[in-house]
Specification:
Structural class: alpha/beta
Shape: globular
CATH class of the largest domain: Alpha Beta
Strand order of the largest sheet: 1-4-3-2
Keywords: Methyltransferase, Transferase, Ubiquinone
CATH topology of the largest domain: Signal recognition particle alu RNA binding heterodimer, srp9/1
GO biological process, one term: methylation
Helix content: 10-25%
Pfam families: 3-dmu-9_3-mt (PF06983)
Number of helices: 2
Order of helices and strands: EHEEEEHEEE
Distance between the termini: 34 Å
Strand content: 35-45%
Protein name: Glyoxalase superfamily enzyme, possibly 3-demethylubiquinone-9 3-methyltransferase
Number of domains: 2
InterPro entries: 3_dmu_93_MTrfase, Glyas_Bleomycin-R_OHBP_Dase, PhnB-like
Length: 130
């Protein structure tokens, strides 16, 4: 069986990101967490995490080596929220220390939508369905 995963590569901040996302979204579940040991360049960083979130499967790692690139906002996690209050709360928490690309508003395609890059560099689009 072929499976596809969204793969998120952090540079030393994967554990903090996972903890933040678990605190923001009740259904964000870390199903497997393997940490790098003392024999690696970055002990305690995430070697591999498998995550379940809103019916999606994600793989999360910390890169074992530094890179000159990071996430791009053109690739984001688009999350449809159940209600405006949950959306507003998630948006506020995720945008702390990050960058708001589109503030929460009615943009026509959604009665409430916001786009941000969190403090870990990951782009999120939060939306209420029509």
């Amino acid at each position: 069986m072929t499976r596809a995963f969204t793969h998120l590569m952090f540079q030393g901040k994967a554990r903090a990101a996972l903890e933040t996302y678990q605190a923001v979204f009740p259904d964000f579940s870390v199903d497997l967490l393997e940490l790098n040991g003392d024999d690696t360049a970055a002990p305690g960083t995430v070697r591999m995490a498998k995550v379940s979130f809103a019916g999606q499967s994600l793989i999360v790692i910390d890169s074992p080596m530094p890179h000159a690139f990071d996430f791009t906002p053109s690739m984001s996690l688009f999350v449809e929220m159940e209600d405006a209050q949950a959306l507003d709360t998630a948006f506020a928490r995720l945008s702390e220390g990050g960058n708001v690309l589109m503030p929460l508003d009615d943009y026509g395609f959604s009665p409430r939508f916001g786009w941000l890059v969190d403090r870990f560099g990951l782009s999120w689009q939060l939306s209420l369905p029509m």
